[in-house]
# Entry
Amino acid sequence: MTGLTERFDAACRLAAEAGDIAMRLRPPPGVQIGTLKGTQDWLSEADGAVERFLSESLRAAFPEDGFQGEEGGIARAGRLRWVVDPIDGTSNYVRGRPRFCVSLALLEDRTPLIGVLVAPAMRETFAALRGAGATLNGAPIRAAATTDPARAIVEFGYSARIPFAQFGALTARVVATGAMPRLGGSGALGLADVAAGRVDAYVELHINLWDCAAALAILKEAGAACSPFLEDGGAEHGNPILACAPGLAGVLTQPTGLHATP
# Structure
């Protein structure tokens, strides 16, 4: 596609600059900042600052493109749409913890074309361009070759939108396969870790588009298996998601109720 490489380069640059903004506004460890939008649903000063920066910068560079942010919704329509989560892992961010990121994606209808995740406190950048592979700090990444759940690490995403009993039942079913559970507090980074082979699966009962749009592009290019989040209407209302090493897709279908394909 004409201009896609230009957009990818711009996404990498702007996401890095957005990460710098987040770091300048970041609280020290143990100091809690921000306000609550809902139960454990945090909003910080950095969320607004980063989203405004990306919206304005992308509008100046690509005025024909649409834009959707977590905080502002769909601000501009367009055949190509940038989707932004200014701070994913805000509950970590507002306490000075390092596991958070800026998430920037470009979609064409329901097809992820570009995904960039910048985790500035950890000095990590995940990036993917459709058809060109996925990288972590410039080095190629691939999903793990794990096939035995007894050797697997599975990260879970939890949200107060879902009754804890459902989350607990899901966790129990997955752990019963022999897998080791983890919770990291950032859906975007949890999914990216699947792409990098750091964990073997990520599952969440409800995740929104802005939380996972960039990771979807990264997962695809890294050869991970993923449930049909966008195909099932996730762009409009969110969806459950399962991303995993391809060799675990079959064994995780029953305990999660989700079918993932490469």
